[in-house]
User: What shape does this take?
Amino acid sequence: MKVYLAKKNGAVIFHTDLAAMKELDGVSKPEKTVTIGEWEAAGSVAHVGASGAIVLGEPSEVEAARKEAGELAAEEAALQMELDRTDWRVVRAAERGQVLSEIDVPLHERREWCRDRISEIRARLAELHLAAAAA
Assistant: This one.
């Protein structure tokens, strides 16, 4: 099976049927033809490259943003797990009428840093999400 690719209104359209491409999009000749395996290996995505040619896969900046978002999400999960693992110390101190920042300064500071870093990560993820939506 083949996938037929063409440019229309600055974007890449794709079809697996040439007649449908002509009928639905008014394109009678594809600019690029690939196998279904190549199409799927590229994530079923194509874009118009800097040279104006159709390129399989995500644009490099989109790919980089997805990679960054994945790394940030993994870091956030690890930090959240660290907070979850030490929550009992906060509860225990509170039950005894103590304040963690007074009885275990290093732990208090580490938990504070984790919360701050999680906030930074969430802000960056929101930026990446907005940039992706605008693209």
User: Anything to note?
Assistant: The chain has two domains: 2-57, 61-134. The radius of gyration is 25 Å. Residues 83 and 110 are 9 Å apart (CA to CA). The beta strands are 2-8, 11-15, 32-35, 46-48, 54-56.
